[in-house]
Amino acid sequence: MTKRTQSTAFKRIWKYSPLYLMMLPGLAYLLINNYLPMLGLVIAFKDINFAKGILASDWIGLENFKFLFQTSDAYIITRNTILYNSAFIVIGLVVSVAFAILLNEIRSKFASRFYQSVIILPFLISMVLVSYLVFSMLSMETGFMNKTVLPALGIDPISWYNEPKYWPVILTLVHVWKGAGYSCIIFLAAIIGIDPEYYEAAKLDGASKWHQIRQITIPLITPVIIMLTLLQIGRIFYSDFGLFYQVPMNAGALYSTTNVIDTYVFRGLLQLGNIGMSSAAGFYQSIVGFILVLTSNYVVRKINKENALF
Amino acid sequence: MNKEARTWQWIAHIILLSFSLTCILPFILLVMSSITDETSILQHGYSFIPKQFSLSAYEYLWQQSSLIFNAYGITVLITVVGTIVSLIITSMLAYPLSRRDLPGGTFFAFFLFFSILFNGGLVPTYLVYTQLLDMKNTLWALIVPSLLLNGFYAMLMRTFFMTTIPVPVLESASIDGASEFKMYYKIVLPLSLPILATVGLFQGLAYWNDWNNGLIYVTDPQLFSLQNVLNRIMSDIQFLASNGDLSASAGDKIAQLPSETFRMAIAVIAVVPILVAYPFFQKYFVKGMTIGAVKG
């Protein structure tokens, strides 16, 4: 009896073997590319010695973390990561929602198409190219700012790549410039989905455009806004490595305002050869980041189950 | 149109036009810089209206062809191979997961999903690729780490298959004796061209623009993609002199190297293919962005 059920269960699964076979490359890839490094997080508790090999390296408990948190680095990179991401979330949201609302107002189809195509352009290029574009603006000797704009205003040239104080503004501008088009299109899709009857009813009641935007458009796209924002908050511990590494050109003088967790881990690993500190910072990021993802998803779930990731 | 509506039109056009300009102007500055005379740049800086035109940067580009062509070739190669392989792996993973009758489907879907939520970060990943797989300084290192760039694409495809492929079609094909593989490439793939195009575009763009893998895993200039060459010469223009065709000739040629304009010329040839191709793929691109936004 049990033998027969076993064999039918086996047959049932065997029927699906081609499907399992199809998944094999993807699952194997995930195992090596994603799951193995997750286990590899334990190296944060080891003193990595390549001569001994990774597995045979000595366990040193929390030593790496002690070193990391004794320096001011841990504080600076955490502060920078969170402050930048917070600014990006708020400013990015305001700008892209505003653009989406304005785009929706444009009557001319041609103009609307044109704007939509153009504001996506920065999203399409790599951060290396962005750093070239920024360099052509900010280069000390040849940049457009120092050679054309500032002289016209009667201001002395500024050594942009040596002055940390300007970078919070520069990086925020670059981030918004690169990303606003993308999120604008997402919000525009949400706005287009609003039933036109609402607006017609409002017009009959004599509501002004401003009123319609505040009383109809914004409330109706609020679910999308909340979801996207919460998801971004979930990723607040991760930053755009390219933005913080390429755009300031890895300039040491700027680290106080451009160093974030991702750039710190990268430099520790590949430029300073300090694997211990780097893996401790990486561990810290993975764990706190994961907790934040879970928390923000939990909040999304509370608000609207449909929109939760899981 | 009443007065209020007209005012809104004006405001909207002015704001959107100015933002559009800030999006276009840096590209124009880039192109203009590449066709300006080197000495003019050293004197007056980069400007929108060159004081003196010169194509010498592009002439140098032509002379330097071995390094640049090699890099261009690598970029094209990793883009084509990477995109195709990743589409195959992603769709082959997503299709079985979209089948509600697959035993263990929930477990595998979670296996995929958890990889999006949690990751080991740079250091362990680096060690896996360099120590375990020994991929440092190989072409593989430019392709493999980005194959399932984002497990999210596999989730996206799975949802697409679930909602667009009619189950009765698959059932009747199965009754007619079609094998699972046959159903996958004769029925599922042809019905899923929109999602394949969207994911393919995002992947292709990611490969074309990728500098990260090269920065982390590659130190051999022969394997540099265009983005890596650009990345390198920004900090080190001498890199060209020591790795290009110039090294064979006399040192005074290096002195004449129009470094400022030359950099910009390479940046131009890296960005032009994207700008040229963009109008053709814009439709799928925007569609993909909005599908992506619904979940995640």
Automatic annotation (TrEMBL), chain A:
Q: Which residues cross the membrane?
A: 20-45, 82-102, 114-135, 166-195, 216-238, 282-300
Transmembrane helix: present as a keyword of the record?
yes
Its primary localisation, in coarse terms, equals membrane
Domain named ABC transmembrane type-1: residues: 78-296
> In its UniProt record, which GO terms are filed under biological process?
transmembrane transport
Q: How does it sit in the membrane?
A: Multi-pass membrane protein
- PANTHER family for this protein: ABC TRANSPORTER PERMEASE PROTEIN, LACTOSE TRANSPORT SYSTEM PERMEASE PROTEIN LACF
Family stated for the protein in its record: Belongs to the binding-protein-dependent transport system permease family.
- This one is known as Sugar ABC transporter permease
Q: Which organism is it from?
A: Paenibacillus montaniterrae
Automatic annotation (TrEMBL), chain B:
Primary place of residence? membrane
Which positions, given as ranges, span the membrane? 12-35, 71-95, 107-127, 139-156, 187-208, 262-281
Keyword Zinc-finger listed: no
The membrane-topology field of this record reads: Multi-pass membrane protein
Q: Which intervals hold domain ABC transmembrane type-1?
A: 72-281
Protein keywords: Cell membrane, Membrane, Transmembrane, Transmembrane helix, Transport
GO BP: transmembrane transport
Query: Which GO CC terms are listed, alphabetically?
Result: plasma membrane
Family assignment?
Answer: Belongs to the binding-protein-dependent transport system permease family.
Q: What is this protein called?
A: Sugar ABC transporter permease
